[in-house]
Write a structure and sequence with these properties.
This protein has about 400 residues and is an all-alpha fold. The chain is built from 20 helices and no strands.
Length: about 400
Amino acid sequence: MSEIDVRSAITQAHQEEWARVVAALCKRFGDLDIAEEAAAEAFATAVERWPADGVPPNPGGWLTTTANRKAIDRIRREHNRVDKQKEAQMLYDDEQPEPPDAIDDERLRLIFTCCHPALALETRVALTLRMVGGLTVPEIARAFLVQETTMGQRITRAKGKIKAARIPYRVPSKQDLPGRVSGVLAVLFLVFNEGYLATGPDTDPVRHDLTAEAIRLTRLIRALLPDDGEVAGLLALMLLTEARRTARVSASGELVALGEQDRGAWDAALVAEGHRLVRERLAAGVAPGRYQILAAINAVHTSARDVRDTDWSQIVALYDQLVRIDPSPIVALNRAVAVAELDGPEVALATVDRLDDKLAGYHAYHATRADLLRRLGRGQESRSAYDRAIALAGNTAETAYLTRRRDQLG
């Protein structure tokens, strides 16, 4: 096997096995720090040994075994004899029993641990992206639009709080789930978004491993809470977005905008399932939450056979509904994109310009401005906005798309 093949195998193992390795270590050792560091050491060992020894037949098993040894070595180094005995007892004693109605999935346990309400919501998301998604601190910092040092400190404090508070590593009981699920959904939404438009400069522009994992875990939560509208809404949103994945990046590695995508390449089964979930929630007659509205917006987009058939008035009406429950600047920005199709780019630009102080560090804000200015014939201003968007964008496919659009201005 060539060096390139080995590197590819290691990358694939990291994408597919990181969460499993960390979850297995958390289950055994009950410590996120030990789990994360031992997993990282195991992957570092793979980088050293696999080129010479070859890729093992079961990479996940090899990594888990190696990580377990690394964790035990660390415990032995850091603790005195009495503490060693306590740690040994911890390692081999029977586990705390799960609630009788809990789903037996180690990664789901890990998510609920990372999403405990004792932690701030942004901290839960960041910790889960690191521990479950395997994203690096710089990647997570870009997702949150904060400095790397700030994000690193946030994750470190979160792990320390889990340890100090003895937060259990398990899925909550059925009666506790409704109060815990909103934080988990926020986490899964961020994990999915990072996979669908990956921010890492050295990663694929679309990370199917993350989108697939987010969908898998959302399905598990829906099995736990089949009547929860927001769980169904998030699943529908993910499915309708994932259905367009193969059409989103061109053969040359450039992002393909929604209006330019080959709709025949969309996954018809995922679209049908997403539409069915949206219809079920509409039939329930209950006021929709954020994810249900976003799913409905995507259902309108995916119902149109051609971009010219898109019902923009319905999309704007849905955004108006969303703004009432989520008046964030990003929602306002997305609404403005729809308004541009309904009322023209000049009306939309007036809204977008009012968001400058809130979204100046967000690449999509500048990309939206650039497109609106281009449509208004203000080429020099559009070029400047594209330059800013390109400087801030972390996704390689999106950067290629923005660069081409800028260069077309002449």
